[in-house]
Amino acid sequence: MRGEGDAEGETLLRATGKQQRSLLKISGEGNYVEDQAKAQMLEAIYIPVGSKYVVVDDSRDFQKGASVLLSYELNAAWIKAVKMDQIIAREGTKQWTTKEYKLKFERVISSISGDTLFLDNPVVMAIDPQFGKVSVVPFKFTGRIQEVGVENLRFESEFANETDENHAWIAIEFDKIENAWVRNITARYFGYAAVSLGAFAKQTSVINSKCLDPKSQITGDVGIHSITMVNSIYLDNYIPQKGGMIMSREQELWGQMFLACPLQRIPMRILAHIIVGQ
Q: Is 120 in a helix, a strand, or coil?
């Protein structure tokens, strides 16, 4: 989807009406279809961050080019080690629990040697037997769409006043998508984000994009420009203004790269959101 430019007087999409929503939403459908019959627990050895391999008991059920999930089941020792069972009590404070941290990372097997599976992308969270179990699970995701771009567009939302909560919330929302991009866009007056990437967005770039003059209350995660629970995301010159950070919401971000992303007029009190596993 391409316009003639994102400057004033060029291609504009305007959100009218009184409802929190995304102005432009592009998504595939479905979810992971996991082949649990072929899943294998990893060997109980330490594998550091940055490694591009894992070791299984028997590699015969895996093939080069297959998509797999690294599925982490973290234990109470991990939560204790990162001190997330000691969060200072305030109104609404919730200590972490193991059931909330069953994490999945997508990888592709690039080659196999013996019982070692080599991966297309590195491990972004160390595999340490003392902190839980990790398994390799083959999967398919047939409903995910590919090769989608949005560029050279300006997005604006109508609003009633500076703290209006009842208008368009997000300019562009992607989910269940891969090999996608947002480039050369400006979003103005939205309550939450210029670009929001859902849990199943993968290998997506956001380049030369701005989120300006958000209209909402600046509290909690409202007014924070988000990139959410995503795999392999690249941001280059993404500029959030006034409202908050580049990333938050579900608070778990994996395999990201941020390049030249200046923050403008950001209240310091909202810079302390939890970021895990960058």
A: coil
pLDDT of residue 231: 55
In terms of DSSP bridges, do strands 33-34 and 132-140 run parallel, antiparallel, or are they unpaired?
Answer: antiparallel
Would you call 268 helix, strand, or coil by DSSP?
helix
Query: Which residues in 79-123 belong to E strands, given as ranges?
Result: 102-113, 116-119
Per-residue tokens: 29: 């459908």
Contacts of 78 (CB under 8 A, 6+ apart): 101, 131, 132
Query: Token match 């209006």: residue?
Result: 164
H/E element holding 240?
A: strand 231-240
pLDDT at position 206, please?
87
What residue ranges of the chain have pLDDT lower than 70?
Answer: 219-278
Per-residue pLDDT at 212: 87
Specify the DSSP element, H or E, that contains 148.
Answer: strand 145-157
What pLDDT is recorded for position 249?
Answer: 41
Tokens for 264, please give them. Answer: 């403008």
Assess contact for 124 and 49: CB atoms under 8 A. yes
DSSP 2-71: B-S-SSTTS-EEEE-SS---EEEEEE-----EE-GGG-EEPPS--B-TT--EEE-S-GGG--TT-EEEEE
How far apart, in whole angstroms, are the C-alpha atoms of residue 190 and residue 222?
11
DSSP-derived 3-state class of residue 79: helix
